[in-house]
Amino acid sequence: MMKMPAIGLGTFRLKGEPLVATLNTGLELGYRHIDTAQIYDNESEVGQVLASTSIPRQDIYLTTKVWTSEFGPGKVIPSLKTSLEKLRTDYLDLALIHWPSPKDEVPMAVYLEQLAEAKAQGLTREIGVSNFTVAQLKEAIAILGPGAIAHQQVEIHPLLQNRKVVEFCREQGIALTAYMPLAYGKVLSEPLLLEIGKRHGVSPAQVSLAWLLAQGMTVIPSSTKRENQAANLGALEISLSSDEMAQITTLDRGERCANPDFAPAWD
Questions:
Q1: What InterPro entries has UniProt attached to this entry (predicted)?
Q2: Global pTM?
Q3: Is residue 250 part of a domain?
Q4: What's the longest Cα–Cα distance across the chain?
């Protein structure tokens, strides 16, 4: 089974030709990890790229996420089969529940058991969740058993460090992907990150990514510009000192970028 590469191409808010061009550039630069979701309405474009690239499917780590409308009895697996058709592949590397069911309209056991069944059927190599609180993660583990949930994808960046969730995932051996790792560009004007970046001859964005990567997290920044995609990959080469890591920790302000009205009661 392919291990998830530490940096992936996020595709949120990208569609059509711009997305196809972005993914092709990313693959050319060396990215081997693509993150999409049913609600992004762009799985077909991702599929187009997967079908046309010379890179073998087994060398690309592919994640999609099941939307909340597909949680009811008997719905998760057909929705994933539709995703696979659009993505032009016969398996996912990772299938995630995108958000917990709003107001628990659908009991968690209903959709998580279907997700586990999707894995048993070979539709996906691994399963996980996204945007779950500690309480919801505990409930999920109680439903599927320890070790079943391989992954949690959640918003993490220097301005929102989500420490309770991070700590709990670490205790449980659940891998973490940090989405919106640049806080929609907010980190770019952060004086401390600018200062650390200057010291290393890199950008504040690269410092933010390096800080997350140093903690063993995966990052999925989205960028349409070749130079930004290349710079993001360059974050893998940056080594921050323990002092610098600690300084960045002081930036936590609980500044959340993704907070829809159906979000859970965050930790």
A1: AKR, Aldo/ket_reductase_CS, NAD(P)_OxRdtase_dom_sf, NADP_OxRdtase_dom
A2: 0.97
A3: no
A4: 55
Residue 93 falls inside a structural domain: yes
> Domain limits at 16?
9-185+217-222
The one-letter amino acid at 44: S
User: Does residue 201 lie in a domain region?
Assistant: no
Q: Which residues pair with 153 in a beta bridge?
A: 130, 177
The CATH number of the domain holding residue 49 is: 3.20.20.100
Tell whether 98 is in a known binding site: yes
40 catalytic per annotation: yes
Give me the DSSP letters along 12-55. Answer: TT--HHHHHHHHHHHHHHT--EEE--GGGT-HHHHHHHHHH-SS
**In this structure, is residue 18 part of a structural domain?**
yes
pLDDT tens profile 85-111: 999 999 999 999 999 999 999 999 999
Which parts of the chain have pLDDT scores under 70? none
Given the residues 31, 40, 61, 111, the one annotated as active site: 40
Q: How many domains does the chain have?
A: 1
- The single residue listed with the structure tokens 């109680």 is 142
Exposure letters 14-27 (e unless 16+ CB within 10 A, then b): beeeebbebbebbb
Read off the pLDDT of residues 42-101 as tens digits, 9 standing for 90 and up: 999 999 999 999 999 999 999 999 999 999 999 999 999 999 999 999 999 999 999 999
Q: What distance in Å separates the CA atoms of residue 138 and residue 133, rounded to the nearest whole number?
A: 9
